[in-house]
Specification:
5 helices, 2 domains, rod-shaped, about 45% helix, 4 strands, DUF3341 domain-containing protein, Alpha-Beta Plaits, alpha+beta
Amino acid sequence: MSNPDLYGVLGRFEQASTLIEAVTALRRANYTHLEAFSPHPVKGLSQALGERSRWLTVAALVGALAAAAGTYWMAWYSAVIDYPYVVGGKPLHSWPPFLLLAFVLSILAAVLVALVGMLMGNRLPRPYHPVFNLAMFSRASDDSFFLLVRLEETPEEDVEHLRRRLRDLHALDIQEVPA
């Protein structure tokens, strides 16, 4: 049974390479609730955490296609059905101006879907996280790398084992994170 007053165990690492090694080792040991924090993007860290972002590109494509189809339909409906008005002898369904508007709005929709998907995938904005209460975590945006192991399913006796494991993985500071 896990301790309800404890959110997790946080380890501070000096280099990104040791953080990636620690993530890889803990995932091999079947720790699945891991969060990593770094002052800059670290190549290979998201792969080590087992995160994939394939759904975001598909969602952006679907949003772009839906916006293009909806825009084209709306332009066609307004020019052909709702307000048929012949200008300069052109046919009512003159598709070149419809395509330009559909293309521009499909790009806008793809960008908006990708932005919202990125925020949701990263769980942002996050005004509160239990690690914000630790003084050493202020270095997360400066010069240190942090690995948080959430204790959602970890038995209480494993906390000391986890601390030893983080120490073996070259964590400089290790602190328990209160809930």
